[in-house]
């Protein structure tokens, strides 16, 4: 499956969210996309899954059976969990009997067998997410697209999804995923891409190796995430972030800004709007519990 | 496609969202048609109500999935097919309702010399014309072409009305043929209007299906 010069924007005059994206997704591979909030990861996944059509370029070779798992699946549909899965199985080309058997099997694998006859609208957030994941795996798709699909799943179901992903890849499927947790399937992805500034580039292998060796805060511990942005190409720090910016030595027009992760999107937008070019984006995570305060680099994007 | 139609039909039936348009239509026919009245005129009245009812049903079917579920269906079946199946589900449901209405009106009306069978057949053809016209109206005034709820409803109602009064609209042609024929007793079969309605609905639905992936 190949993406060539793919671009996407919302509205005929809107700014391009993604531009000139070119990549290959060979059969039997696991591909990870990373990048900050609002960089276009979800937009890219929707294009890969075929939910949205590219505004420029083309995507060829998408397998006939494609399945997508959204991050949140608040499906207020008037169907039971098993009923929904059987419908989706049939839509993906299974026969009725097979769809029923697979629906039961996958609910069981994710530990949701007890909810098979519960109306979707009454399911907890976690169980809804199990249904969303089961729906995607029912028909053994040739392309599986997971947009933060692990979010909301309990530990057992997360491990079951990891196993299912490995099975898909081993069976020759393509699996594409985004997850905020850098340890998710760490070291197993055949290719890792960074989505930033409307483009996609291959992550540098050194960074991936470095990530594996760094000690991290426990996921349950409250963490303070900060983002350090390095930018160049501008003249003056744009209004609104002068207070946070530090000009860098070694040539005019370079600066770094360190802000809370929650404000990073706003700062990035301000910089980009003012004509700055973002060179580097690092997230640093500091555990709030002092004994865990190992500063961990979550993602180094050179 | 069958699986998609079953899925959308199950959603429509179980959500009970069909109740409002179909009950309103039953009231519309019940109030406007009296037993013993000339059958062709009564049929003309009964089928014209199908235009807004179909447009409304199409709108219901296109909006009955929450966006996460719509994305899942679109990935599994392709966005254009998923969109088309939702529209067709509504068209099929209203065709059934329209057929029941035509049979009931024909049974209680006064044929005035025409055979009930040919009057019923003309009524069914006219019902199909109105349902297809309503399908076009619904497909053009709902997502992805018009997204805002207020504009969507306003244009849906206005377009339904225009489809019934504008000369040249297939629905207007089929209805007026039935109503004007109510006098002399010859039964009009609106074949040209049917051909026009098929072309109109096909164009509108194709446009909506093609746009859905582009405007996501």
Q: Major β-sheet of chain A, in short? A: 6 strands, mixed
Kindly identify the CATH topology of the largest domain in chain A.
Answer: Rossmann fold
- Taking all Cα atoms into account, the compactness measure Rg of chain A is 21 Å
Helix content of chain A: 25-40%
Q: Give the overall silhouette of chain A.
A: elongated
Q: What's the β-strand tally of chain A?
A: 14
**Domain unit count of chain B:** 1
Quaternary arrangement of the chains shown? heterodimer
Radius of gyration of chain B, CA atoms, in whole angstroms = 17 Å
Most extensive interface between two protein chains, with residue counts: A-B, 33 and 26 residues
Q: What's the total number of strands of chain B? A: 0
Average pLDDT value of chain A? 84
Any chance you could write out the topology, listing elements then pairs?
The complex is a heterodimer of chains A (302) and B (216).
Chain A lengths: L1 E8 L6 E9 L4 E6 L6 H9 L6 E5 L5 E4 L11 H11 L4 H14 L15 H13 L5 E5 L7 H16 L3 E5 L12 E6 L2 E4 L2 H9 L9 E10 L12 E3 L6 E7 H13 L3 E11 L8 E6 L1
Parallel strand pairs in A: 3-7, 3-8, 5-6, 6-7
Antiparallel strand pairs in A: 1-2, 1-4, 8-9, 10-12, 10-13, 11-12, 13-14
Helix pairs in contact in A: 2-3, 2-4
Chain B lengths: L1 H14 L3 H14 L6 H10 L1 H14 L3 H11 L1 H30 L7 H25 L8 H17 L4 H12 L9 H25 L1
Helix pairs in contact in B: 1-6, 3-6, 3-7, 3-9, 4-6, 4-7, 4-8, 5-6, 6-7, 6-10, 7-8, 7-9, 7-10, 9-10
Summarize the structure in words.
The complex is a heterodimer of chains A (302) and B (216). Chain A is of the alpha/beta class and 302 residues long. Chain A has 2 domains: 2-203, 3-Layer(aba) Sandwich (Rossmann fold); 217-301. Chain A is 28% helix and 29% strand. Chain A contains 7 helices and 14 strands. In chain A, strand 6 (143-147), helix 5 (155-170) and strand 7 form a beta-alpha-beta unit. Chain B is mainly α and 216 residues long. Chain B has one domain (2-215). Chain B has helices spanning 2-15, 19-32, 39-48, 50-63, 67-77, 79-108, 116-140, 149-165, 170-181, 191-215. In chain B, helix 3 (39-48) packs antiparallel against helix 6 (79-108). Chain B starts with a helix and ends with a helix. The model of chain B has no long low-confidence stretch (mean pLDDT 93).
